[in-house]
């Protein structure tokens, strides 16, 4: 399979190159940028709680900035691309704000559990991809860590493979991680809320 000029296959999932200093530095920049994007997203959610700005407008704004960033060449000014990344993260946070407020009104512990759960899963598949050795097969990984983490593992592997092939676009790679993190967080948040509601109905019946 070829993605953005980088060829990867089943073998590339199992057979990593040794991390070169350039790849290590790239991954540090990716995760630092991701951390900053998550902070921007948190501010977006906070802004919604204060000014009630989240909704269709912020969702459209996120979609627009996402498309703008994806079609902005990597050779353009990084400050511009970073601005688009952080703006899209802020708008995404504002867009999720209404759901977060609903969850807080219902049970704030659900929000904490969802964030911690997302962070743990994200760290697990990131660490697994970075520490993988030639003796670890894809089949074993899928069996032990489950499909969800396996998919995240593939995303990390693809970014590492792209870096090995010279694609050092840390802004785009950070954005890929951010959208995956946000999607995972929303799904875990919804699942936890439904679980709490179901448990509450059972308790009321007793």
Automatic annotation (TrEMBL):
Q: Does the keyword DNA repair apply?
A: no
Classification via PROSITE patterns? BI1
Q: Does the keyword Chloroplast apply?
A: no
The entry's localization annotation reads: Membrane
Q: Where are the transmembrane segments?
A: 30-47, 53-71, 83-104, 110-131, 143-160, 175-194
Enumerate the InterPro entries for this protein: Bax_inhbtr1_CS, Bax_inhibitor_1-related
Superkingdom: Eukaryota
Q: Which GO terms describe its cellular component?
A: membrane
Known Pfam families for this protein? Answer: Bax1-I (PF01027)
Keywords of the record, alphabetical order, are: Apoptosis, Membrane, Transmembrane, Transmembrane helix
Q: How does the protein associate with the membrane?
A: Multi-pass membrane protein
* Family, similarity comment: Belongs to the BI1 family.
Name of this protein = Bax inhibitor 1-related
Q: Which organism is it from?
A: Arabidopsis thaliana x Arabidopsis arenosa
Upper classification of the organism: Eukaryota, Viridiplantae, Streptophyta, Embryophyta, Tracheophyta
